[in-house]
Amino acid sequence: MLILEKFYFLRCAKQKHNLMKRVNFLLVVMLVSSQILMAGGLKTNVNQSSAWARTLARDATLDIDGVYFNPAGLVHLSNGLHLSLSNQSIWQTRTITSDYAFLSGSPVEYNAELTAPIYPNLYVAYKTNKWTFSGGFGIIGGGGSAEFPEGLSDFEVPTASLVPQLTAALAPVDAAIASITGTDPGFRNITGYNMNASFSGTSAYYGYQVGATYAITDMISVYLGGRLVTAKNSYEGALTDITIDAPAAYGGTMPAGDYLRIVASTPGLPPDVVATLNGTASALDEGTADGELKSTQTGTGFTPIIGVNIKVNDMLNIGARYEHRTKIELTNDTEVDYNEMYPDGETSRGDLPGMFGVGAQVKPLKNLTATLGFTYYLDRAAYYGNTDESGDPINNESTIDNNHYTYQFALEYKIIPVLGVSVGYTGGNLGVNDDYQNSMTYALKSQTFGGGIFVDVTEMIRINAGFNVTTYDDQGKSLSYVLSPDPLIQVPYTDIYAKQTSLFAIGVDFHF
Q1: Which residues contact 134 (CB under 8 A, 6 or more apart)?
Q2: Pairwise CA distance, residues 191 & 113, whole Å
């Protein structure tokens, strides 16, 4: 066998080992980044009441859900105790279509169903003259579970690449044997690959908010408060049974390492070739070994919040609030971690960004209310704990070009004294670049349409019910996979990201 051919084979062997280690690394990274984001910013859930579900714009509300959306406006509640209870059920579908040439059945569509059947909100406020004291509970980030029964392209591409890599590496062996014996053994005729990849994850950032609102004048009121955030992410998954479909004459489907040992046992091969084959087989044993992860991350943070409300008159109200960045350190509690990427007890960052919201509520007619809102998220200043393929931290400024913002609009009309209807819309700009996008944490430009009803059962009880749908623009990302570093052989391909979310909410507001 030529020396050049032996070196080429050795380089391919080293590359295969590194790529398969990367497969197991991706399993860990993608599980840890998994979360279901309901609505709002890149990391922040803004769907915080059933009234929001039917309007999508609450930035200047003077109702009880103002505890979250406009806390400075709570002084305009009537004196006494106010309580709001609601639940949302949320469904999200994610689809990734990959046209990588060596995927079996390319292009391949990967689907994931994310669900959050229980998504509660609780608000309480006590108004006494110029003071209002309030508290609230909600899922500020994450919230839900993700199931990926078919795996993802990031898992399958490195595994699928074993076929062309082994084919190229074994071709010189076939040629050398054929030149000596006159018979082509066909070791390179590998026809496919197999793997099992499955994982599930849950993620929730729970927010516990307290604060006080004071009326400086009949027109101007201010709020000072804070939110304790407790985060918990749980992940469980496995990448197992990675095999290749070798020629039937040599045993058919088996682990890649076992197949190279069969090739190495061919009589008459030079000792150095046998050594290279067996060494490569050992590397592949390690690189394609079953990988498993079972880990939980927990952490806490605190969010200072301030707000101001200006009630110009009975026709116009303006509300604004600012939430500071929530710094959160997540600590690993790991039972199983094949590649030791998340050692037990180590910490990583998972912040929530600061945000500023402002809105105006206008009542041009007695029974008609219109609301405009704008929310600005300070994503670039936060740290989301993103890492590159080597596990090194990535600064948000390298993946986010501009801070994210949304704008929202709502109309509410009271048909009869006890029944009203509403519609709403929200859109915005994400500000992320291609480096932010990957199979688990991609962000797409979206627009949400919502509607619903509100029923005043008595002067003290209101029921809110709403439904909304979020549609997203598909986005493709051009990628390439390195089959060989020297000579450089890259295979370009495209992943297309898609998503859709629907939400139903119902709740009841009380005044005592």
Answers
A1: 67, 71, 74, 123, 124, 125, 126, 209, 210, 211, 212, 213, 225
A2: 31
- Tokens encoding 409: 């609009």
Tokens of 90: 């949320």
Q: What is the pLDDT of residue 30?
A: 37
Q: Tell me the C-alpha distance between 506 and 512, whole Å.
A: 20
Q: For residues 32 and 236, give the distance between their C-alpha atoms in angstroms, rounded to a whole number.
A: 10
Residue 443: which residues within 8 A CB-CB, separation 6 or more?
42, 430, 432, 436, 437
- With beta carbons less than 8 A apart as the criterion, state whether 191 and 21 touch: no
267 CB contacts (<8 Å, ≥6 apart)? none
The angle subtended at Cα 142 by Cα 384 and Cα 412, nearest 5°, is 115
Q: Provide the pairing of β-strand 405-416 with 368-378.
A: antiparallel
Query: Residue 500: what are its φ and ψ, rounded to 5°?
Result: -150, 140
Note the pLDDT of residue 16: 40
Alpha carbons 351 and 346: distance in angstroms, whole number:
16
* Tokens of residue 260, six digits: 């190279």
Low-confidence ranges of the chain (pLDDT < 50): 1-37
Angle at the Cα of 94 from the Cα atoms of 471 and 342, rounded to 5 degrees: 130
Predicted pLDDT of residue 28: 36
Based on the number of CB atoms within 10 Å of its own CB, is 182 exposed (0-12), middle (13-18) or buried (19 or more)? exposed
Q: How many Å apart are CA 267 and CA 67, to the nearest integer?
A: 79
Contact 57, 460 (CB under 8 A): no
Buried b (16+ CB within 10 A) or exposed e, 273-299: beebbbbbbebbbebbbebbbebbbeb
Task: With beta carbons less than 8 A apart as the criterion, state whether 509 and 84 touch.
Answer: yes
> What DSSP character marks residue 73?
G
Residue type, 117: P
Amino acid at position 35, single letter: Q
Query: What are the Cα distances from residue 288, in Å, to 1, 281, 465?
Result: 28, 10, 51
Q: Three-state DSSP class for 312?
A: coil
What digits encode the pLDDT tens for the residues 200-255?
Answer: 778 899 999 999 999 999 999 999 999 999 999 887 878 889 999 999 999 999 99
List pLDDT tens digits, range 109-119.
988 888 889 99
DSSP secondary structure string, 411-454?
A: EEEEEETTEEEEEEEEEEE--B-GGG--SSS----EEEEEEEEE
CA–CA separation, 297 and 145 (whole Å)? 15
What 3-state class would DSSP assign to 310?
strand
Helices and strands of the chain, counted as H and E runs: 8, 18
Predicted TM-score (pTM) of this structure: 0.86
